[in-house]
Amino acid sequence: MSRMSAGSGFEYLMRHTARGDAPDRSTAMTRYYVNAGYPAGVWLGAGLAGVNDGAGLAMGSAVSEEQMARLFGAGHDPVTGAALGREYPAVASPADRIAAKVALLPVDLSPDMREAKVAAISATEKARDTRGAVAGFDLTFSVPKSVSVLWALSDADVQRTIVDAHHAAVASTIRLIEKDVARTRTGHGGSVRVPVRGLVAAGFDHHDSRAGDPQLHTHVTIANRVQAASDGQWRTLDSRSLYAASVAHSDTYDLLLADNLTRTLGVAWEVRLRGRARNPRREIAAIPDHLITEFSQRTAAITAAKDAAIDTFAAKHHRQPTGPEAVRIRQQATLETRQPKHVSTLAEYTEAWTCRADLILGSDARAWARQVTAVPADAIATRAVATATEAPRARLATSDSVDEQTVEILAAAALDQVEAKRGTWSRWNLVAATCRTIGTAGLQFDTEQDLLDVRRRVAEAAIERSVLLNPANTAVVGAEIDATTGRSVYDAPEVFTSLEVLAAEDALLQASETTTAPTVSADVVDRVIAAPLPGRDHGLALDQAAAVRSICGSGRCATC
């Protein structure tokens, strides 16, 4: 998820969009699509009913560049061009700000003084955050690499089935965000978080990575303009809620997609590790790792840059980075290795991908892909028959078949995940952990509603096991209640911890007050402080030396 600034921020999505498009989205994402570029975007979201002066805009209709410019460029109605709420504030470019400040300099400055002041003004203005108003948010829904590989090598009918499963998972996730997350702020200082009538969004399908490998993904750009359910006025989204829930809904999308593909193609799944800085992810069991690696050149480039950055970090700090530090290093490596996209036709791409897979597999890749998805209809229903690759099959569950004991086991596992990383957590941290726990357990469901029911039951059980740190404010009489949290629209989102975390904090505080631990003599401490640091030509700074003295001489069992 990333923010999109007002103005020209949307142009990336339109830059490679083809003009002679296929009759529908799924057809456009098959090996027979011969237009250069990506298919046209389509409009998404229940909030479309409120545009065009209330006449609405058809969901699934094609997105034009003029409509994008109106909505994401100026915050206006994509059809009529009328302003939706307040106008975006004008933001001057760095060059304009520099010119304006230089014009105010005294005319009698010496050439050297003028040059120095101009240089100082330029440096200051270029360092400022010059991003304009937030026009929207780009949510990128990307299928697991094994799904992209299977899609790239399959016949058109299977490709269409995979794309349809992806689109259905995206649409379901957007509906969940609209119901549970999308809020706007009203009242004095934005003190009230109220539901909205829906999101206004545009979806753009892309089929490749920046390295030219198969990577089926959809950019869903959500406009930062929504209608409050209470009064229908156009306002901005509460972005904090959107960001807080983004990981939970990403993980929910993964579950929805996996179930859709299992129901339609009969594929089985398994959890695979992806290194220290990345969470494990489920992949199609029949797709081998060496084939995934072949089509992961972008990942290989990021990993190489990350490894080099970690080596530099270790040389500088004389230690390996922590988990969060490693994640940040990988994120920076991702940005530094971005290359401009070269967009070819999907028909040309699929032929090239198939040739590469033929070499890796040592056989006809398309015939192999047909075997992977050649599952009898009764096998999809019963999960009793394995594929040609003999991959194990999951049994599809219903919500009723998941008993309360299983729910409690899953909830305990989800809470353990969160406790291991956080001292406090939100509802959405628990939902994300719930999704990962369901996936790790190999549970798949007969219907989407079965999955969402079990997700809700497990998350609620994990919430019940947690300790709420900010109880609801009961002083607001008659306040509207948020259906997702059961709290007043005036209340801040819940913050949870657990009895185990509280007990650990108590133990740490008690230990910090206990002064019976061994101490280090002052002369030893002085020698250590005065000595140069390993590999350096200097010792500790004054504040560091003071900290060492305090710790070594305190006698405390734990030092905060």
Terminal-residue CA separation: 36 Å
Describe the global form.
Answer: globular
Total domain units: 4
Low-pLDDT residue intervals, each spanning 5 or more residues: 377-393
Radius of gyration: 28 Å
E-strand count: 15
Strand content: 5-15%
The major pleated sheet works out as: 5 strands, antiparallel
Category by helix and strand content: alpha+beta
Helix tally equals: 21
Widest sheet: strand ordering: 1-3-7-6-2
Portion in helices: 40-55%
Mean pLDDT: 86
Report on the architecture of this protein.
The longest helix is centred in the N-terminal third of the chain and has 25 residues, at 156-180. The protein contains 21 helices and 15 strands. The protein has 560 residues and is of the alpha+beta class. The protein has a five-stranded antiparallel beta sheet. The chain has a two-stranded antiparallel ribbon with strand order 4-5. It folds into four domains: 2-85 and 131-382, no CATH class; 94-127; 396-499, no CATH class; 513-554, no CATH class. The protein has helices at residues 11-15, 25-28, 65-74, 94-103, 111-127, 145-153, 156-180, 239-244, 246-265, 289-294, 297-317, 323-336, 346-361, 365-372, 377-382, 404-421, 427-440, 448-465, 499-512, 522-530, 542-554, and strands at 2-5, 42-44, 134-142, 183-186, 192-195, 201-208, 214-223, 226-227, 234-235, 269-272, 281-284, 396-397, 444-445, 467-468, 496-497. Residues 377-393 have low confidence and may be disordered. Helices cover 47% and strands 11% of the residues. Helix 11 crosses helix 12 and helix 16 (404-421) crosses helix 17.
